[in-house]
């Protein structure tokens, strides 16, 4: 045990050293005890973090920074193939070549039986232990109250968080940043590992899109000496410019560079021998793990996965869909393994704009539908269960007699995860037009 | 140069010309910049920073000589010849096509596959979009049919915008085209709308950019791009009034009233969110606009989809049975609403004056907007003849967007752009994915949106990449910029190029901070040793070539250069 400024922490992990370090700074800065800090320590913390610590509203005893990681599966994942209600004969009849059985002993790999009713796609084997441990939850029948089947509109509505209003300027994750309750944020408070800012991040709170952490430097190809010199010229120029946006942001940029330089991103080695798939999603999650372990103040991370619009030959146990879910589950599992002692701080949530038709179409695929499912992974998740409700798939139970009904509003799940994990506590601000109740897919606060 | 002559005579001359063409007798003869303490050249630099994509070398002097008023009038006429630009645009063959031709030439990827299945080229059970052999078959099929990939269409769209912004003589029209496109935003990210965007910009936005607001509004309302982007193409009246066939189609496609366009029409295109309309008005306006749809790739009013009942919007009655005319009346009413005058003028002032423009200015512009029935030229004139436009609170208060930065750098250096997509990629990296802003709000027009730690670093790296010759296809001649005069020392070079790239600014602090870069002999040697690029060796003034290009890179990435 160690005691710092009235707070008690168990010294279990090496992380605690960093944690105490932060708490110490914050405590001292708050208490006016700055002089007691060693000079060496001062030099180690970038100015904006120190400022953030000093100005931060402390409304509760300091806790580790919690991180919410969102993965948008663009193109609309077939939720009925990812997590199949395999006892439903209607589904098997509607999908003669797409249905995968849970029965063992056939030629193909069977579904992974989760609870006697739902089966996980065989390519998501790596999810099984996480589900059995109660860390991974699934919500089935999740979707938007707006019945649009346009990718663009549905993604737009899901990311703005206002399913009936296109003009909402901000995205829901940007509003979440605002609700974190800090007076100041670090350059890495909200990071999207994408080439452009996603709709979820639009808004007034500071967020950043970075396609590759290695790009986060002054670049002079093959000329590190010149790069260093040029960087210091830039730093000087931004330092002397008139007060305001450019000066402040310039300062943060150079401090951020220094933080990342220390971490040696190029030679990163994941913990616990985690192996990330060499895919855009795998690489994004690896970089998010790096940011988390650097303790640079990351609280909301976003990335995406493409290729879910499976109109043609989506395959069954093998094929396009199988490759997609191999990548999805493999990337998430590697990320989770790599997080190691940070697992308590992190919750991962997937999302997709809608599901796909119950019936397969004429080209071995499925068309745009309504309800899908999503995955939530974390130690504060009420896992090991398939939440939500999925009716028997007889024609009369289908939305417009073709699609899995949306039984759980996406805002219900997003708000519960964000509220519980990041402790935002203001659904009205997060999702202005929504006043539903949570469904208990997160564990209650103990 | 006799500056006294210039100061006294040219503004009067310019004023006389203006008087005859645009201005009533009560209007001032010249732009009130001297009252704000600006010299002619400083004022020219400011005016150019707002109504061009950046001054080209020597342009500030040229405009000051010509007279600011006269230059502005010429830009408002927008009839300067564009021969050189047009020649550069010749290879972009998609730019001249109609919507119909585009649809026939650049089918969407999904359509291609469906057609290939139908033609028996591929088996519907073997569609494997992720296999190379399969993609080759599709490519072969497309070549035979004369189809071109959709991406080629968008590539041409992006390239033409970059070339126009960099090289158009009628700069103000390009700037206003960008402004109105962003105001009436549509997005390539929306598949249904994407292929109509080139024609939308060419035939709707650019021709209307300095015309009457009401005409522009109507043209956007009737454009396939907007009809798809905000879903009005699908909006129809009550189904029980439809003919049986139409009812069946509507039921199958889950159609009915769609309010998206009507809402954004009021909230974003005309009155503004606080403009004083209600949800009821939105729904009623949506009913007025039912039947405005797309057929054969063009706008069509379809009476059978139109809601024939009576509607009330903002207290005004429309219908019953008003047909297409109801919608036109509605647009006309919205275009001339006082809230619209205020909302549009404030947005224009944000673009051209500052992120938070003074309300006195906006009110004055709004009065012109109303008095002149939405004449955009008159609104711009009121703005630049107002003291607020020239006040210290406006000078260099705007932060360049990534597009403005990239194009500005090209113009500052008189650079040639042989591969516009390389610039496109940099602009994306700096945070502005052109034509791809997803929300109908368009890109937020404020510095805060553009500047964050990541994007600022990208701007610095852009400056360095450009200046040190690492953007393929982008070439320029630093010596020629200075009329092939070799500066006498490294220090002289620094001063010279700072002033060439950023004319009429106080650059002492910048120069002071950059001086150490040049005076470090260590640096130049190491740079030369490490960087064997050809263009570095070609320029050999007194200071080492490498350090001059680096200095130019740092100037473009400097805080001062991010402002306009």
Q: How large, in whole angstroms, is the Cα Rg of chain A?
A: 23 Å
The helix content of chain A, as a percent range, equals 25-40%
Measure the end-to-end span of chain B: 27 Å
Rounded mean pLDDT score of chain B: 88
How many helical elements of chain B?
33
CATH architecture assignment name of the largest domain in chain A: 3-Layer(aba) Sandwich
Look at the structure and give the CATH class of the largest domain in chain A: Alpha Beta
Specify the helix fraction band of chain B: 55-70%
Number of domains of chain A: 2
What best-fitting shape of chain A do the alpha-carbon axes yield?
globular
Strand count, sense and barrel status of the largest sheet of chain A are: 9 strands, mixed
Q: Structurally, how many domains make up the residues of chain B?
A: 4
Structure classification of chain B: mainly alpha
Instruction: Assign an overall shape of chain B.
Output: globular
Q: Rg of chain B from C-alpha positions?
A: 27 Å
CATH fold-level label of the largest domain in chain A: Alkaline Phosphatase, subunit A
- Please provide the ordered H/E string of secondary-structure elements of chain A: EEHHHEHEHEEHEHHEEHHHEHEEEEHH
Q: Which class do the helix and strand fractions of chain A yield?
A: alpha/beta
Oligomer: heterodimer
Query: Count of helical segments of chain A?
Result: 14
